[in-house]
Amino acid sequence: MYLCVPCSPEGVPRLFDLVRVKDECFRPVFYFALRDTLVADNLEQATRIAYGKTRHRVVTLTGQLIETSGRPPLLVYQTCCN
User: Fold this and answer.
1) 9, 15, 53, 57: which could form a disulfide with 49 (CB 3.0–4.6 Å)?
2) Is 49 exposed, middle or buried (0-12, 13-18, 19+ CB in 10 A)?
3) How far apart are CA 28 and CA 70, in angstroms?
């Protein structure tokens, strides 16, 4: 039902595959929002993956997002711990 990223660059996981839901009827909603976004450990790895041979949408473990177009995301959420 959902597309998969065959042989994702550097073996990083797809964000959608990391989401767990209590009710499976909500999975399409998450796929609509996340699509084939990949999860990288850091911005350096995310940049390599995003601008590699094939463009990918990538998010880091700290929440930095790289869109396939290369433009900044419309909404940026910053978390901080004080």
Assistant:
1) 9
2) buried
3) 26
